[in-house]
Amino acid sequence: MNEPFKTCASCRTNWPTRQDFLGDPDLTVLGYQAHFDALELGVFLFLHGRCKTTVAMQAGKFTDLYDGPVFEERRTGQDDCPGYCLVETELRPCPAKCECAYVRETLQIIANWPKAEC
């Protein structure tokens, strides 16, 4: 039997696939915890409304959803950096041409993913 994409640690809800996970109307994006040394090891945080638990998933599980430019230089702390990656609950995309911007764009894709009918 295949392992589910994710299982809620609290209520044990299984999401068999990434599509099931992203389309679940009981999941809401809460934020992103950056990992500046390896961006795909950063964590997207979701609220599982059914049991009020925070569900964490590594960003690398989702970055293939983004197909735009990926910049080489990290701009954190520079004049053009709004500091969004430093605020876990900040969901806005980053306007800087920064290495981290593609992760924030991925966050937008996830936040706007169509939810299944209840």
Produce a short descriptive summary.
With 118 residues, the protein is of the alpha+beta class.
Could you outline the blueprint of secondary structure elements for this entry?
Blueprint: E1 6-7, E2 14-15, H1 18-23, E3 27-33, E4 43-48, E5 53-58, H2 101-111
Antiparallel strand pairs: 1-2, 3-4, 4-5
Largest sheet: 3 strands, antiparallel
Query: What count of structural domains?
Result: 1
| Helicity level | 10-25%
What are the low-pLDDT stretches, counting only 5+ consecutive residues below 50?
none
Topology order in helix (H) and strand (E) letters: EEHEEEH
The value of Rg in angstroms is 15 Å
Mean pLDDT: 94
Query: Biggest sheet, strands in spatial order?
Result: 3-4-5
**Ends distance:** 27 Å
- Please tell me what the overall shape is: elongated
Can you tell me about this structure?
The protein is an alpha+beta fold and 118 residues long. It has one domain. Helices cover 14% and strands 19% of the residues. The chain contains two helices and five strands. The strands form two sheets. The chain has a three-stranded antiparallel sheet. Strands 1-2 form a two-stranded antiparallel sheet. It is elongated, with a radius of gyration of 15 Å. It starts with 5 loop residues before the first strand and ends in a 7-residue tail after the last helix. The model has no long low-confidence stretch (mean pLDDT 94).
